[in-house]
Queue: 2 jobs
Job 1
Amino acid sequence: MSEVFADRRGRLRDRCAASGSAAALVSRPANVRYLAGGAPPGAVLLLGAGDDALLCPRTPTGDPVEGRLDERLRLVVLPGAGTDPAVAAVDLARGQGADVLAVEEHHLSVARHRAMGSAAPQVRLADLGTAVEQERIVKDEDEITCLRIAAEITDQALGELLESILVGRTERHLALELERRLVDHGADGPAFATSVATGPNAGRGGHRPSDRRVEEGDFLSVCLGANYRGYRCEIGRTFVIGTSPADWQIELYDLVFAAQRAARESLSPGRAYGDVDRAARQILEGAGYGECVAPVLGHGVGLEIEEDPQLAPGAMGKLDACVPVTVEPGVHLPGRGGVRIDDTLVVRQEADGGPELLTITTKELLAL
Amino acid sequence: MSEVFADRRGRLRDRCAASGSAAALVSRPANVRYLAGGAPPGAVLLLGAGDDALLCPRTPTGDPVEGRLDERLRLVVLPGAGTDPAVAAVDLARGQGADVLAVEEHHLSVARHRAMGSAAPQVRLADLGTAVEQERIVKDEDEITCLRIAAEITDQALGELLESILVGRTERHLALELERRLVDHGADGPAFATSVATGPNAGRGGHRPSDRRVEEGDFLSVCLGANYRGYRCEIGRTFVIGTSPADWQIELYDLVFAAQRAARESLSPGRAYGDVDRAARQILEGAGYGECVAPVLGHGVGLEIEEDPQLAPGAMGKLDACVPVTVEPGVHLPGRGGVRIDDTLVVRQEADGGPELLTITTKELLAL
């Protein structure tokens, strides 16, 4: 695996060199992890003329941290708890003779940026922009394997929950139980805060679990995902509690299902991000629910649960093969509840079988 | 309660006015929450010549968010998912006639800061610094009540764990069980990632739970805390597994206990931060463990689990009454394990009974 990280760093160095910076400082945590293979909190990565270096703080109340390193990457643990690794890095870059250092201006605070400038005024700070985020969009097969395992764990956790008694339990407890089951099945943790929404809360994106208890006749929507070796997937399903759903519940479910299927089927290399969104959105708008639809209908996943691309009306760009995305339309009717259906898929060429569905829990409307 | 938040905002406005800025933009999430009483992710707070305004993004995949507001605070939900609330805020400030806007340069990224400058070049951006963080150090009695409840919940969760069978269970499962119990007892969630460390891991600050199982003869150290209405406390205890601890375990425990007690007893208004650290550190150094001690022996707690002040050798400043802090010395012997004892206390005047211990679980060396 260590070759992978060295290769990624090599590509970034080439990209920097082409734009006039011999050295680059990566500070955004997921970007550091992507390029170093693992990094303790607060670590920054210096790619320079010399050896690449991972600069780590001592944790304020802990032992010196240890990073996983490959042979081309040097670990530098800073002596004091108060030393900013970014400031130490610009100093190291200056020592290596760098005159321009590209930094992540979308991540570094104004105060840190200024402290770096003061520490080494000889070094001009340029902007690396989102170069690393752009590299991260297309995944290699090892990354997709991690996502596939994350999805398997997620399906298992959700499947077990569906076999248990739900009526009378609170949203909060159901969310905790799902998170425990994720870890039981091998997740490093939840990929994001698990959402369980019942009754009038159902179908609300990002609903925070409350003390409301599951009741007969409720819609129940859940959204969860496992973090496996840093890779995060997402699944969302909506169920009905009780013997038979009401007519309005069946109609709303069928509508959202149709919208979600249309967006899934539109996933292919070369397809514009906005087209995927439109495939789902026009079905929901056509049924008169335009006002109840979220502004973004899907997004990339990987080392972060929300990555590029965004599948939204204004989004610029086109899908590539090997890009994992969520497709998650939903409709929430204030006071009544709603439906959200969410899958993680990998964009694949038609010749490779088309979009690969990672989250395989059924999307039939189950009455639990 | 709404008066409280309006008063806090009034103090900050006065402070800004005194330093030449009629308007201020608060973007750091815990600071926004402190001043607004609650805020959705990504919200920023504009304190200006006109009404104060809480500017909230629409969540990328959700419904428009709702903030808890008091009557003097206006809620502005931005129309698009892509609008940066900080950019919208500088535009609003300009519209209200502000010519200087103080911003949190330690929080705002270089890219956001530049976007604000471009959106309203007529408005000069000044630095608010850590003005809000400084205001947050001394807590009012309502805040301390939240911390006290958080500590009660934490003690309950830990107490229940001690009554269960531990041998053979993994660090990871014990940590999850503790987090479930925190929520069972009314926590909004864990205050931070629960740490459970066994055998050679015991006593390491910030140890991430692994699949190692508890064995007879182990040291077992746990560190956990509840989040109650946003307020976060912390407790750390070390136990021995089995019938009787080894001599080296008793000696190490007694030493860390003595160091922790010395630091606790040194907590009083007017005492220098560094003195508290030194009270514990000199005992550990005197026993020859100087190299094994963490660089910071305690810190403030509140809306964040690590707040000012830092109790560390170089820290400048003195304690005030009503400042809640942790006192958490530990010694970790590589390969053997170690001891960490951690309490949350509130600094109080001698006449008020001296430091108030919030986390009351026994600090006897229990053999479990």
Job 2
Amino acid sequence: MGTVVWWLVMVVVVAVHSASAAVIEEKWEVEYTFWWPDCKEGIVMAINGQFPGPTINAVAGDRVIIHVTNKLSTEGVVIHWHGIHQIGTPWADGAAGVTQCAINPGETFTYNFTVDKAGTHFYHGHYGMQRSAGLYGMLIVRSPKETLRYDGEFNLLLTDWWHQSIHSQELALSSRPMRWIGEPQSLLINGRGQHNCSQAAYFTKGGMTQCTFKQNDQCAPQTLRVQPNKVYRLRIASSTALATLNLAVEGHKLEVVEADGNYVAPFTVSDIDIYSGETYSVLLKTHSTPSKNHWISVGVRGRKPNTPQALTLLNYINTPNSNNPTKPPPVTPRWDDYDRSKTFSKKILAAKGYYPPPPEKSHDQLILLNTQNLINNYTKWAINNVSLSVPATPYLGSIKYGLKSAYDLKSPGKTFTNDYDIMKPPANPNTNKGSGIYNFPLGIVVDVILQNANVLKGRISEIHPWHLHGHDFWVLGYGEGKFRRGIDEKRFNLKNPPLRNTVVVYPYGWTALRFVTDNPGVWFFHCHIEPHLHMGMGVVFAEGVNRIEKMDIPDEALGCGLTRKWLMDRGRR
Amino acid sequence: MGTVVWWLVMVVVVAVHSASAAVIEEKWEVEYTFWWPDCKEGIVMAINGQFPGPTINAVAGDRVIIHVTNKLSTEGVVIHWHGIHQIGTPWADGAAGVTQCAINPGETFTYNFTVDKAGTHFYHGHYGMQRSAGLYGMLIVRSPKETLRYDGEFNLLLTDWWHQSIHSQELALSSRPMRWIGEPQSLLINGRGQHNCSQAAYFTKGGMTQCTFKQNDQCAPQTLRVQPNKVYRLRIASSTALATLNLAVEGHKLEVVEADGNYVAPFTVSDIDIYSGETYSVLLKTHSTPSKNHWISVGVRGRKPNTPQALTLLNYINTPNSNNPTKPPPVTPRWDDYDRSKTFSKKILAAKGYYPPPPEKSHDQLILLNTQNLINNYTKWAINNVSLSVPATPYLGSIKYGLKSAYDLKSPGKTFTNDYDIMKPPANPNTNKGSGIYNFPLGIVVDVILQNANVLKGRISEIHPWHLHGHDFWVLGYGEGKFRRGIDEKRFNLKNPPLRNTVVVYPYGWTALRFVTDNPGVWFFHCHIEPHLHMGMGVVFAEGVNRIEKMDIPDEALGCGLTRKWLMDRGRR
């Protein structure tokens, strides 16, 4: 239990630091606006008229206070601060139905939390599929004592974009039969992509039109203007709804130094894979005698791509921005070369000297089988045969006030039946809807094995990047086929596993992670693919229920469903 | 004050009747669904999977209990019972922000009200532009002692339909510069229209394709199957978002007998105009020796039309449904023949012997000038220089609990400046947003003069059908130009003015109406054109504030904004 003690120490350190910390306070208004994210007009969810939303620049220990006013006509809204642990403020995590009620149109809700540790993070909508409507932005938390050395930095927020509205997408996915939304029309870098033209068309024979941009075009790429012989930190985050991405910079190597806000043992690659929900920092050393511009390319991996690469320029200051690169954009590695992907994933290991190793033993183990299923012929995703239906009353409030009818009190299974054949479509395609959660006492070590399987039809197993709220976890290992309980644990990396908040489970494989229940609250753990989550692919962890019962939670977070009723009736009791 | 007494008597009679009345109780689920309203796929707001929503068939005095569950992903919802007075139950009126909070996704709200008097009514969404998304249905209240004689009846719910989503429409209207949504793509009769074909194409040379329908086509017209030599009551309601309609039945006269749930002195016409928010009953006498089918046509008036007629068949039982009529559909009268429209409006007078005349004098008078304006270059509609911005906290709750910061306490002006030239664009195009309301004591007689004017640009004055919640009013007269206070009152019809809940104000003209403040509550009074209301064209009447303060209002109606906070804090006080 040495690690648990260490974690508690860290919490104390943060608390001390924050006594002298800054307060970052902003007023945000969320509303739809017409925008041209990919040189075609669409409708985005903007913050204060900006798309993507404003970047938050904080220092570890700072207090962030964001007053979010919902200026939408009829829709609720929330903002999730992806990568922030919300220690002591689980109600500020921004997961609708889990930690708070959606903010009603015309109302303002104040998020007030400490950014507990440094890292490259982002924020995004977490209600319906509002993230996919463009409700996202960067959240950079700097370290007061940064150990990385670099001369400048850039943020690259990567997303995917559809021309179909999210309302239509949500309905399509919820229809019987389900209508798949298809691959994105465009990839966006900092909210900018090109659908009807290519910046690199001059390299291709026929087909695409060469882009020409007018000043202030909302789809014109932001070039990365660099000086020679310097080191730049690229802070890269993926808030895609669906796509797994690969990023490369032509003629330059990338040194991976940070993943999900944690330092990793540096390694150098020609390109990185990035799954939805992940962030990376890479260091890029510029050439000493540059004479031209270079392409930065972002392409699709992990699914058969049907979306053009997103491009922008690495622009050396002595070269005009308008000079076309003389070499074509990097070719994105083959989408289904999973061995290549796994090789990259397995390179990511904890940096030495920063983090203690994980606890050697776990106290509890969940083996979560993800399956694609049917409920009454509606297509769903299920975990251990339960497709999550998030209740109208946020769990955090139901638990605090002991409202036992707000959700299914029976927990979903801790594992799945031994005879399930993950290599085949489910023998019984039908599953069940549920709102049950997993309950953990404080201070224990939990292992979660994500187990992938074949989808409903055909011989396909999809990629799922799983994101845990309120925590980092150690990624103990990846494996092929079905997890062998009692055997595969022996291969866990307990020496230098990376700390992350998002991890992928590969087709027909498993991924093992470990975390310590040191953060009282209710934490969503779900596939970060927006349509998969919409179809039920998530679970919920309640941690330290007795602590939640004593916790101060603003009434405004619980003004819906049964908690609203409970709080209103309080006056009559 | 004789009339006031009569009204109070009527309330008592209803109360007595309801002691023996039936209860109509239904569970409704509201959700989006793909549908083919006009032979082209779109997305509609359905109730229990039906579009339009289910018809409610009640008898005057019945109690109607509808449990509405919001199955939308992120949007709130309410239902307004158009034409029902909600005596004693103003919280059940279903006007979001006025009488209740929108129902949150996943939650259920119970409307529980008495249908106080017989009439042809309908219900519809009253949040954002959800009515335009197809959230509507018929609400028929029969009289236990019907005096009209007829052999059968049909409901015709008339609406207009756009291919652009309401979310996109709302944004377009709220954009700077405003983007007008244009004329509807289709007109629908009971939710059915034809966009890509015409049933009567065989009458026209070239152009349109003749429709052929497959069984169960959602856009196939419902024919009105009739027997010879009988009298049928057509109950017609218009829930259009924009269009003024004209309905005619080829080869048949229509005897108008009811308007907005009130009997009118019968008169016979070849066609009727119907404005959004209005209902009519007409009696149609079938031919004695029929040998063919006849077209029922619905076309656009009052705005330059760009939408094909909606058609369905009057089908005599001895004639196959598939026989095409031998005469073409009736031609809709010229859209801008306002003299014809006014002639029709002025024919509508109260039936003798049913209703007392209005009180001879009024105690208060509002002259409401409607103007199209700009606020910070956003296009708005304003009344007496205030563009209504409905607050996040419902007025009904703010008033009950005395929450004075929930809305502007200053009432908007009771009239407009004398020198305003209604024949020209506003000299100062700018106006102000506001949430102030008009307060009336109980038991007084109020006159409202709706004053039309020129729009922002050009020489145009638009039609506005105004609908009052919670009341019928007497239509005392229509006039041209600017209302002359002290003069035009002398021309008011105090003998047999019709009782209505919706009335039109013609271009460059005025309309006078009178009502008695006999219904404690907060009542929306607004232009029933959905985009106009969205742009601020409405006012709010609070009636009997001291009675509202003592009224029982379910907490569930007030679970948003400052009333939620008030009700939650009650427990701490």
